[in-house]
Write a structure and sequence with these properties.
It is built from 5 helices and 21 strands. The chain is mostly beta strands and 418 residues long. The strands form 3 sheets. The chain has a 17-stranded mixed beta sheet that branches. A two-stranded antiparallel ribbon has the order 1-2. Strands 3-10 form a two-stranded antiparallel ribbon. It is globular, with a radius of gyration of 23 Å.
């Protein structure tokens, strides 16, 4: 992969790693609530209620260029879960978890669990944020900011915003890295999405920034970029429905290397009812018994409900599923379809055999095989399935016995609560 050593940027042929400086932007704009139109214009403000929960799903497609030469194409999945936990005056306290995942193979359709960030911030009714300096997320801040009055179709306004990046792995810069800009907004009137008409506003900004040197292995000497977005608004439910963006960012680094990102991003707010874990777990357990699925169990976990498939069978030392296991997964897929509003995490586990690196790769590959099969059967679309390999880190039985190793060779499918 591409990585940065203590002396210089190290370029390795497969062209991976620069997506650590990801465009995680599609997860940041749709934390929006509003009130219905008044007269001939629209009044956009944030509305908050304690206890409100929602999640955001976004997909980013980007091409990465190193020194103006195409390096690779990346597809990145971002999941955000948000809860409003307090109100004070015009501001609301948000607790949010941001998870980034990248497609394992270009066009493969399987996303591997990546970084997870927790953030706490306040936002007022016009969109201005207050956040402590240690938080890396959200990347794009103070976007959108509304003028707090009725806006006529075609009207334009401006407000300052910023991007905040995590350059720890790429550059060794240990603090969140801020890039300022001024955004221009225009109320575009009503447009059609999903067969209905919604009020829409655009957000555009340009970046040309020559920052001071930062404490790191290398640092940006010049940053240039552009972002053009559209946000669709639903006045009936009082929040944005969907957002899309075209972006370009160029980093000229202190060692002479230039890294460029060109891409598109899309995001949508998804709402689901609060999961009744005990009831759902019992339903799943009853279905497992009724369908006669062997070596399967159900348990409630912090993230949601986990179905554990112990001793799932693959060809020896491979991630190729045996035909008998596909029949089992067909039955599991039927159960999962009963909870179609929940995203899925597929986790792979191995027994304690071989090397740690080998176990980790095998567990990841086997989780990917199960996820790919469920996607191929239409159980979920690929952006709603994430995989994670654990190797032998989370045993459920004693690896010193054949029975214990059999139980530890498992795949777990978790219905995520939010």
């Amino acid at each position: 992969m591409y990585g940065i050593s203590k002396q210089k940027i190290r370029v390795v042929p497969d062209g991976r790693g620069w997506e650590k400086i990801r465009k995680l932007r599609a997860i940041f704009f749709v934390l929006i609530l509003g009130i219905p139109r008044q007269g001939w214009g629209e009044t956009f403000v944030y509305k908050h209620e304690i206890g409100n929960k929602y999640r955001i799903l976004s997909v980013v497609h980007e091409d990465v260029y190193i020194n103006r030469i195409f390096s690779h194409r990346a597809r990145i999945l971002n999941r955000v879960s948000v809860e409003i936990t307090g109100l004070e005056g015009e501001s609301a306290r948000h607790h949010a978890t941001f998870t980034t995942s990248e497609e394992l193979l270009e066009g493969g359709g399987v996303f591997h669990w990546g970084n997870e960030y927790v953030s706490v911030f306040d936002r007022d009714r016009q969109g201005r944020m207050t956040i402590e300096p240690q938080y890396y997320m959200p990347v794009v801040r103070n976007v959108p900011v509304f003028p707090g009055r009725d806006i006529q179709e075609g009207e334009t306004w401006t407000a300052e915003g910023s991007e905040m990046h995590d350059f720890r792995e790429a550059f060794g810069i240990e603090q969140p890295y801020r890039i300022p800009f001024e955004a221009t907004y225009t109320f575009l009137g009503n447009r059609t999405w999903g067969g209905r008409r919604y009020p829409v506003f655009s957000v555009s900004y340009r970046i040309f920034y020559e920052p001071p040197a930062a404490m790191g292995r290398v640092w940006p000497r010049r940053i240039m970029g552009s972002s053009d977005q559209m946000v669709y608004w639903d006045p009936e439910i009082g929040q944005a429905l969907v957002y899309d963006e075209n972006f370009r960012m160029i980093f000229e680094l202190s060692n002479g290397t230039t890294v460029e990102y060109r891409g598109q991003a899309w995001a949508q707010i998804l709402e689901s009812e609060i999961m009744k874990k005990e009831e759902a777990a019992q339903t799943i357990a009853d279905e497992i018994n009724r369908l006669g699925i062997n070596d399967a169990s159900v348990r409630i976990v912090d993230e949601g409900i986990t179905i554990s498939l112990e001793n799932i069978q693959f060809q020896p030392d491979s991630a190729i599923l045996l035909a008998s296991e596909k029949e089992k997964l067909d039955k599991i897929g039927d159960i999962l379809m009963r909870f179609a509003d929940r995203d899925i995490l597929v986790g792979g586990h191995t027994a304690l055999a071989g090397t740690a690196a080998g176990r980790m790769k095998l567990s990841q590959d086997r989780a990917a095989a199960v996820a790919s099969y469920l996607i191929s059967k239409g159980v979920r679309e690929s952006p709603r399935v994430v995989i994670r390999g654990y190797g032998a880190e989370r045993p459920v039985a004693d690896n010193s016995t054949a029975e214990g190793m059999r139980r530890n060779r498992r795949v777990e499918i978790t219905l995520l609560e939010n």
